[in-house]
UniProtKB/TrEMBL annotation:
Protein's name according to its UniProt entry: YceI family protein
Domain of life, source organism: Bacteria
Pfam families to which the protein is assigned, alphabetical: YceI (PF04264)
Secretion signal span: 1-21
SUPFAM superfamilies noted in UniProt: YceI-like
Keyword Metal-binding: no
Keywords, sorted A to Z: Signal
Keyword Transport: no
Organism: Catenovulum adriaticum
């Protein structure tokens, strides 16, 4: 009986340690931005305000973007993007996943940074695409991990069946054009 009780305590301890050993995304310290270009000349900066995610002990990275949190600084444009482009009634979230070497983050020294090339998968608007990303990973003295894009990730609207939505936005705004390829940059911070 004592053995079973001790075994349960050890297993519970292992489960608790592994549950808290991963990293959770800190939304307040993170950002995901994208640019849109209209009329061939006018480029504007936008962002998403609500991100969540984690990095597991096995190196599995997952980031969820709340598409209803799109922030273009113009409320009617936010509403139109939610309704016609992202169709948040059907596709409320976008998900990004990637895989790091399991020992990579644990072996990083505080204050160190590394450049990485990864293949990430973006699940957006019911479609998945593999995207090459270039990032710098930094571990600060408190153990927080930051992943920062070294170059923009180019998202093509056609790959995610978003062209009809862009066309509707263009029509509603009376614009001659909106580009179909959007550069995305990010700075994500994870706390253990």
């Amino acid at each position: 009986m004592k053995f079973a009780s001790k075994l349960c305590c050890v297993v519970a301890g292992l489960i608790c340690n592994s549950a808290i050993a991963g990293w959770q995304l800190d939304n307040e310290s993170s950002q995901l931005n994208f640019l849109s270009t209209k009329k061939s000349q006018i480029t504007e900066l936008h962002k998403f305000n609500t991100l969540s995610g984690s990095i597991s002990d096995l190196g599995k990275v997952s980031v969820e973007i709340d598409l209803s949190s799109v922030d273009t600084k113009i409320p009617i444009r936010n509403d139109r993007m939610q309704q016609y482009l992202f169709e948040i009634e059907k596709f409320a979230k976008a998900n990004i996943s990637a895989q790091l070497e399991p020992s990579f983050l644990q072996s990083m020294d505080s204050g160190s940074s590394h450049n990485l090339s990864l293949n990430a998968e973006l699940d957006l608007h019911g479609h998945k695409q593999s995207l090459p990303i270039e990032i710098t990973v930094f571990k600060d003295k408190s153990g927080k991990i930051s992943a920062i894009s070294r170059q923009p990730v180019l998202i093509n609207a056609a790959d995610f069946k978003l062209v009809n939505g862009l066309n509707k936005l263009q029509e509603l705004a009376g614009l001659p054009s909106i580009t179909h390829v959007v550069p995305v940059t990010f700075s994500l911070t994870f706390s253990q």
